[in-house]
Amino acid sequence: MHIFPKISLRPEVENYLKESFLNKEVVSASSKQEAERKFEALLTQLSHPPSFTTVRVNTHLASVQYVRGLLHEELQKQFSGFSVPVLQHPALPDVLLIPVTGPRKNIVKQQCEVIVGAQCGNAVLRGAHVYVPGIVSASKFMKAGDVISVYSDIKGKCKKGAKEFDGTKVFLGNGISELSRKDLFSGLPDLRGIGIRMTEPIYLSPSFDNVLPSYLFLQNLPSAVVAHVLNPQPGEKILDLCAAPGGKTTHIAALMQDRGEVIALDKILTKVEKLKQNASLLGLHSIRAFCFDATKALKLDTIDDTEGAPPFLPESFDRILLDAPCSGMGQRPNMACTWTLKEVTSYQPLQRKLMNVAIQLLKPGGVLVYSTCTITLAENEEQVAWALRTFPCLQLQSQEPQIGGEGMVGAGLPLEQLKQLQRFDPSAVPLQNRNTDSLRDASREDMIWLANKDCIGFFIAKFLKCKSTEEVSGK
Fold first, then answer.
1. Which of 129, 346, 356, 412 is most buried, taking the most CB atoms under 10 A from its CB?
2. First to last CA, the chain
3. Catalytic residue ranges
4. Are 237 and 138 contacting, i.e. CB atoms less than 8 angstroms apart?
5. How far apart, in whole angstroms, are the C-alpha atoms of residue 164 and residue 327?
6. How far is C-alpha 70 from the geometric centre of its chain's CA atoms?
7. Is the entire prediction scored with pTM above 0.90?
8. Cα–Cα distance for residue pair 3/45, rounded to 1 Å
């Protein structure tokens, strides 16, 4: 059962994805009909939110049980006394899961409408209020305090400031306007804050706007798996190559008990500043963040002393996380992607460049974890196959915890290696209508299983560097 259309893609992008998901190995492993069914299910799932909101507890400042109690009290307030379960993940002890209910069918649409951009709409479906910068248009006579129906302009066709819009739009629920139309479009460039406070969202998700900010980090479940797979130890020197906004960086520091050194790189200054703010808010002091292009992080000579700043000498780090820039095709909810095929396929060379740098910066015996939030074969399994061919010093490793499914066939990797990968596939479970009754009847085990399966599209590979890069290249 679904209420939104499948994700809208350019025809050449959809064909490109379909070709991967219906490759010869996939079709021979099941059937063409089954592969087509799974692919269509994937496109539909991508336009809907995951079944659970996932938050990571900052164990550096407080225990999981203490924060869980505070969060339960907060949710009681948000949901007017309705008891929403807060589950601790059995394999990820610092992760809490809150079920999302919906889609709700009995919401009465209002005459007064607000149109928001697609990105804003995606955030609303995951529990956010509507912030002023996300509002594209509003009905002619809208006043502060009016009950408003909120719609997402998924194809970006609505003109800023329009009084009505008859294009493709998706209903997100109702809210109360904090501002009048005149206030919204008065021309003030610095207007910020909440524009519509959502009161009847079509999916009921908790809002984390300034909720326990020192104790909680809002994070998709597979993203929280990554740092556990890296398994950082106190006292180690760890590099996060593409770090901002710092969810995985701060997780690494917390798992190390804030003892050791976590170097975080990102080439966008505003993102680095945000990372530093997050580290400060979470009380983590082992993180050193630099605005630096990670493709240039390898120092090729020893003449200049950079005093611990990038670039770095070869084989300087015990563990490295490469959460690579990617096409982001696994993000949910995402009702429309306007990217061209050239844009979607542009990441593979950059990922390989970053992988080359990471492998040279890793100590022999060190661990490299590669991850993306995309579903393409080219950015995931094909990259693993390329890395193993290109760098004889690398060995693929099994992962702990193993929560996602095995890798997808089609890149020439044997089954044994596919089982060592983690691919989180949203098409693994059918869409469900989740209401309060189904929550009440569901067992804890069933809810954990659903949270593991019905999440964003994601990929994780773990490598061990067996020998020095110089030793291998010298042979």
1. 129
2. 58
3. 373
4. no
5. 33
6. 25
7. yes
8. 11
